[in-house]
Amino acid sequence: xxxxxxxxxxxxxxxxxxxxxxxxxxxxxxxxxxxxxxxxxxxxxxxxxxxxxxxxxxxxxxxxxxxxxxxxxxxxxxxxxxxxxxxxxxxxxxxxxxxxxxxxxxxxxxxxxxxxxxxxxxxxxxxxxxxxxxxxxxxxxxxxxxxxxxxxxxxxxxxxxxxxxxxxxxxxxxxxxxxxxxxxxxxxxxxxxxxxxxxxxxxxxxxxxxxxxxxxxxxxxxxxxxxxxxxxxxxxxxxxxxxxxxxxxxxxxxxxxxxxxxxxxxxxxxxxxxxxxxxxxxxxxxxxxxxxxxxxxxxxxxxxxxxxxxxxxxxxxxxxxxxxxxxxxxxxxxxxxxxxxxxxxxxxxxxxxxxxxxxxxxxxxxxxxxxxxxxxxxxxxxxxxxxxxxxxxxxxxxxxxxxxxxxxxxxxxxxxxxxxxxxxxxxxxxxxxxxxxxxxxxxxxxxxxxxxxxxxxxxxxxxxxxxxxxxxxxxx
Length: 476
What we know:
By secondary structure, this protein is an alpha+beta fold. Helices cover 45% and strands 21% of the residues.
């Protein structure tokens, strides 16, 4: 490689600086004259950063306008937006007289100028933005570059409060190669003006709504090297009406139907079949609407917790119905109600759930005549007699004794009838004792059913109020 002498290097630098320092000389106020001057003094220097010296910093002003929100993908954690990117920088020493050259600005091909390598740090896909071949060049040396960009950027999405979530995605604009000492990024329009302009020109009216834009200058150090940039915060809010109508309201309706199913009496309506039908319908509903739910990330969305609680409550109410039905209709298999259980449930819990205890009957069965001694001493025989038909009993008695006189026959018939009535009375007393025990178990089932119904309502209210409060707090 031939050695370059210091004198030659000084001459080359002087020529470069002279080229950037002198004003363009247009021979006439025509486009041909202006482009001839630009071709001679500017277009041949596309490889050089347009500053007067290597130590000077080129200031690049940037501004954006959000034109459309194309989508947010929770699974891949990406944001797709359509932007207008406006860049502006100054070519040192370049100027022309707009009267001599005939214009204040002119559009020139992009490849004829040195263009800063501005990129978005969060860019995650191939750049499919439309190409704009021209930029504006002003007589003061200012370059104005405005182009559309389709951005697919990474965004840390938080779906905990879905579908009432607010996402804050960042877009960091800065040079990919040049250090902060070579190219400095400067924020152009204020964030409030960008937000106002974006809301005026935004074309999409889909699931997401643009609610705020913030901007912040950024100096990032990587391996002790300073890189300049401007960071924009795009704040988006999900329009939740679709999910409220299709997910939350039907779920609340099914929970309400399950709640009011407690009013169905278990002894007259098969409440368990009704509840199983509700559970089956709710499961099918969740399977159909599964595509509307987001893919879970680091945290489980509250709406999934809401659905799980709703399904768990339906299953719990079904188990409660099975338990109460078993108490009320299988009481004949149980022994008498223990005293402590009767006092606890029928006295205290019944008062707690507003079920007044039934007053005991004041009727007393009085026997006006004692049974004969032989009928009292031989109760087993009476029981056996009572279990057989009356005609058989009478025929057996009559077959044992010889045929008496008519008066004795009437007396024997009355005695036989007395024994049968005594046996019937004993059987009726036993039946009423069992009926009283069954009635106590039945009342215990009613009290427990009312108590679990109140607990069910309380748990639903506490759970739903907690979830709604978390949604509100996270949104504010």
